Structure formats: structure tokens, C-alpha cells
């Protein structure tokens, strides 16, 4: 196993030159030369359907190449054969095995992608609001108090995750969702005083230069935005490119911006996506965590439970303990969404709950800030609270952590136990009920 070498600060954080590889450069990744040719071909096939992007830090510091292809970070970042169904894989493999044009590959990829539910949970139909009578692309307002903003400059990542539920953001303009109008964002927030939380999301807003991020966030210090109490920034940069906070040319400006927002009375939370404890092993990531915390910003961690990557309950427990020790707050265990390559990563709901429970019972109260397992479904965030037997019927116990209608929150409801259920849509009401209590209202939205 690759060991982290602890160096003195002066030499520890000499930044490497950022080098990124996408699907057309996959043959230039020297570490892949050790893999059998058929595995390399499989990766090329899948990488022509799903977005692929990996940087040199992930390759050199986070992946144990002696354990490939089973290494969790390799599975997290490099395309795998099982991500495509057999029919889709065979079609793309056949095309790539003969003379072909880029247009033919793009057209077939587009055909395959459209079958993969590119925008799940009503994101395009139910979440996009209107401003002055017009639909506002780049903003989602699903829950009353929270607005999501997709800055155009932040709609890619330092590396892409194979499971990503926002994969459609990265595969062409037809499925992309973004906005670069800071004034429109500010006007919308000023008009909606019920909103307390702004979530900057993507992609990854931390790929932006600080000057561009400031354009969106600095104005929130003004009195007209006193109702905006929390600013969240969703990012994978803490583990995929921690130099963003340590040695990047504008790292100090970024930390300064975070501190300014905190000093202005905002609760600033870095929503860090950490899928495996292996991602936390580098000294530069730990330094980045320290620097962010010094600004007064908090770091909350979240990740879905993923087959082939992080199914081990003991690993989750150790990861939550380590995150807590580093000053991070375990926040969510999600259930893999019903989009993209879910067939490769999804786990039955009852096994997901069992894994969560086995991990949760190993940690102390300070790490039990984590919630889940949670489905970010159409009507809201639905937690699988347990599996039990009531009146002789085996059932899932469910509740809304968050919902389109706030009145649904924390109301328990029950579904028939189904060992093959992977998502909310697979469940049927228990006890002879025809519908869940929220169903009619949600269908009418």
C-alpha cells in the first residue's frame, strides 16, 4: 500500500502542475499500460458514453495501482464495463472496433444517454423556478428555504466520479444546466426572502478562479440579503485537488473570501464529497482542511453508498471517526440515484440500511451527526429509518428529512418490504393502503 510521506511544510506542498486526462487522452496514462488490453478497451467504450476526467494528483496519490482494478478510488474515477448494459456496450464496442467518425460516436452516445434518466427526481420539470415570468435555467428551488445555483464557470470538476448523478452536465450542451448571470441570482434571492440557504453547486464551483466566485458571493454581505444565513459550496476539491486551498495562485484570496463571508455573519459550509477514507490520506488534504477551518467556515461531508467502492460498514465508521477528528462534520449517507450508471453502483435498500446501521453503531455521538441512508427523490429526501415487523407485516420505515411540502417532514410512513427495491419508485404502501400519504399532492405539483 502506498504510504504518505510526512515532509516539513516548506517542501511538503510544492504543487504539481495540474494535468488532466479525458477520454481522448486515456492512452497517455502510463499506469494503465500494466492493465490487460481488453480492460483498456472496455474503459474506452464506457468513456465515450459517460464523462471521464482524471487528474495527476488522483492518479499518483490516491490510487493504489497494485490493487487495480479493485482499488476504490480507481473504481471511483475510471470507467468500468458494468456501468453500461450489454446492449449499449455492444453497440458502442462494435462502432469503435471499425472505422468510425466522431459524429457517429457522438450520435450513438447521445442515444444511449437518453435512456439513462439524465435529470432525475423532476429536476428540470419541477425544480426550475420562474423570475419575472420566465424560466430561470441554472437555478433550482425545490425546497422553500434552499436555492441551488449552477455557475457556468463551475460546471466541470478536477476529476469526475463514475457514479455522479450530475453526469449529464458534462456530456454536451443539450443536457447542460447552468447560468453566469450573477445579477439574476441576486435579484431572485432578494425577491425570495423565504430563502435562507444558497448552495453553489455543479460540477464543482471550486474549479472557478476566486475572482469569479466572488462575483456571485460578495454581494450577499449586503443588508438586502440578511435573510440568506447559510452559504454552501458543494465540492470534491478537498480530496481531488487540495492545492486549491494551499498553493494555487489565488488560494489565499479564496480563503480570504470565505473569512469575509463568515465575518459578515454568514454560516459558510463546504459540502465536501468524500467517498472513501483512502481519499483523506494525503498531508496536503489535511492542510487544506486546517486552512478552511481557520476562516471560520465549516466542512460537512457526504457521499452515497456505492457497490464496488464503499460497501464496507467498518470503512464508513472509520471514515466518519477520522472526519470528526479532523474537524469535519459527517452529514449524509446517500442512496445512489436512479440515473446514469446506477446499475453498477446501486444496492438494495435493505442492505443499504443494514450497512448504515452497522457503521452508525460503531461511532460516538459526535459522529452521529450523519443522516441517512437518504434518497434524494422527486418528493424530497426520504430516509430509510429501518426495517421492522408491524402486525405481522414486514415493512420499511420511512420519513422525509426534507420535502417539497414542509408539512411532510418527519412524518413516518411505511412501505412493504421488498428485498429487490433500490429506490422509492420500487416501493408500495404497506397495510393495504393504495397510496403513500403524500402521493396525491406530489402528483398534482
Automatic annotation (TrEMBL):
One of its GO terms (molecular function) is 4 iron, 4 sulfur cluster binding. Its cofactor is [4Fe-4S] cluster; pyridoxal 5'-phosphate. Keywords: 4Fe-4S, Iron, Iron-sulfur, Metal-binding, Pyridoxal phosphate, S-adenosyl-L-methionine. Coiled coil: none annotated. InterPro entries: Aldolase_TIM, Lys_aminomutase/Glu_NH3_mut, rSAM, rSAM_sf. Gene3D superfamilies: Aldolase class I. It comes from the Bacteria. Belongs to the radical SAM superfamily. KamA family. PANTHER family: L-LYSINE 2,3-AMINOMUTASE AQ_1632-RELATED, LYSINE 2,3-AMINOMUTASE-RELATED. This is Lysine 2,3-aminomutase. The lineage of its organism: Bacteria, Pseudomonadati, Pseudomonadota, Gammaproteobacteria, Alteromonadales.
Amino acid at each position: 500500500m502506498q504510504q504518505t510521506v510526512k515532509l516539513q511544510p516548506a517542501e511538503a506542498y510544492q504543487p504539481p502542475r495540474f494535468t488532466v486526462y479525458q477520454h481522448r487522452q486515456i492512452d497517455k496514462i502510463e499506469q494503465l499500460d500494466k492493465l490487460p488490453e481488453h480492460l483498456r478497451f472496455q474503459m474506452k467504450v464506457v468513456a465515450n458514453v459517460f464523462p471521464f476526467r482524471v487528474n495527476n494528483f488522483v492518479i499518483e496519490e490516491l490510487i493504489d495501482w497494485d490493487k487495480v482494478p479493485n482499488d476504490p478510488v480507481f473504481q471511483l474515477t475510471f470507467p468500468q464495463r458494468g456501468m453500461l448494459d450489454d446492449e449499449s456496450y455492444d453497440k458502442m464496442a462494435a462502432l469503435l472496433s471499425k472505422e468510425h467518425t466522431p459524429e457517429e460516436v457522438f450520435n450513438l452516445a447521445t442515444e444511449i444517454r437518453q435512456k439513462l434518466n439524465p435529470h432525475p427526481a423532476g429536476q428540470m420539470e419541477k425544480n426550475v423556478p420562474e423570475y419575472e415570468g420566465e424560466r430561470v435555467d441554472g437555478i433550482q428551488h425545490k425546497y422553500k428555504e434552499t436555492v441551488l445555483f449552477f455557475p457556468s464557470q463551475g460546471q466541470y470538476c478536477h476529476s469526475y466520479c463514475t457514479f455522479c448523478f450530475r453526469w449529464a452536465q458534462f456530456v454536451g450542451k443539450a443536457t447542460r444546466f447552468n447560468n453566469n448571470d450573477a445579477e439574476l441570482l441576486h435579484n431572485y434571492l432578494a425577491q425570495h426572502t423565504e430563502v435562507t440557504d444558497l448552495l453553489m453547486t455543479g460540477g464543482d464551483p471550486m474549479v472557478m478562479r476566486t475572482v469569479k466566485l466572488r462575483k456571485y458571493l460578495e454581494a450577499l454581505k449586503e443588508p438586502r440579503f440578511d435573510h440568506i444565513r447559510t452559504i454552501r459550496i458543494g465540492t470534491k476539491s478537498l480530496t481531488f485537488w487540495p492545492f486549491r486551498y494551499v498553493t494555487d495562485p489565488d488560494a489565499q484570496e479564496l480563503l480570504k473570501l470565505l473569512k469575509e463571508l463568515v465575518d459578515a455573519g454568514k454560516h459558510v459550509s463546504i459540502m465536501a464529497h468524500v467517498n472513501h477514507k483512502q481519499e483523506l490520506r494525503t498531508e496536503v488534504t489535511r492542510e487544506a482542511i486546517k486552512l478552511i477551518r481557520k476562516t471560520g467556515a465549516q466542512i460537512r461531508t457526504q457521499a452515497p453508498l456505492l457497490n464496488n467502492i464503499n460497501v464496507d460498514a467498518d470503512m464508513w465508521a472509520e471514515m466518519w471517526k477520522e472526519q470528526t477528528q479532523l474537524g469535519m462534520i459527517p452529514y449524509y449517507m446517500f442512496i445512489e440515484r436512479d440515473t446514469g450508471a446506477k446499475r453498477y453502483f446501486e444496492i438494495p435498500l435493505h442492505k443499504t440500511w443494514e450497512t448504515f446501521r452497522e457503521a452508525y453503531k460503531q461511532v460516538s455521538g459526535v459522529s452521529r451527526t450523519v443522516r441517512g441512508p437518504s434518497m434524494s427523490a422527486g418528493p424530497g429526501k426520504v430516509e430509510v429509518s429501518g426495517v421492522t415487523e408491524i402486525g405481522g407485516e414486514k415493512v420499511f420505515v420511512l420519513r422525509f428529512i426534507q420535502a417539497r411540502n414542509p408539512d411532510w417532514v418527519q412524518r413516518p410512513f411505511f412501505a412493504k418490504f421488498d428485498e429487490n427495491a433500490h429506490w422509492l419508485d420500487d416501493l408500495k404502501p404497506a397495510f393495504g393502503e393504495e397510496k403513500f400519504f403524500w402521493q396525491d399532492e406530489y402528483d398534482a405539483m
